[in-house]
Design brief:
two-stranded antiparallel sheet, globular, mainly alpha, about 120 residues, single chain
Length: about 120
């Protein structure tokens, strides 16, 4: 029996997580926003609140968090849709081991920060 490597499993987990968190692109001509890429913004905010409860240092200034995420997206070097660039960031996080545990869930750094942004923006 062939046993998949840890990297293979994490890669697939990242791909599935990306599909679950990010929704389909918006209609042509509409600007994309980080939070508009979330499939279920309320669910993401719940995850963000859980992350903040475990790591309050992730919170703080909404504008600074949004700016940091915007800079990270720009650094991807891809000019495609925002949703695709965020998906790439998530996969890169998993590949590089930038994984955070939130209430037992394994999330990429990018996913965690997007969820925290959703939580902070909802208040």
């Amino acid at each position: 029996m062939i046993r998949p490597s840890r990297r293979f499993v994490l890669g697939w987990a990242a791909a599935l997580a990306t599909l679950a968190i990010f929704r389909h692109p918006r209609a042509a001509g509409q600007p994309e926003d980080l939070l508009a890429c979330l499939g279920d913004r309320r669910a993401a905010a719940r995850i963000g609140r859980a992350a903040l409860a475990e790591r309050p240092e992730l919170g703080g200034d909404v504008g600074a968090l949004r700016h940091a995420l915007d800079r990270a997206v720009a650094a991807v070097g891809d000019t495609g849709p925002l949703r695709r660039r965020l998906g790439r960031m998530v996969r890169d996080d998993f590949s590089a081991g930038r994984i955070e545990r939130v209430q037992g869930w394994m999330l990429s750094e990018t996913e965690t920060r997007l969820c925290v942004l959703a939580a902070l923006s909802a208040t």
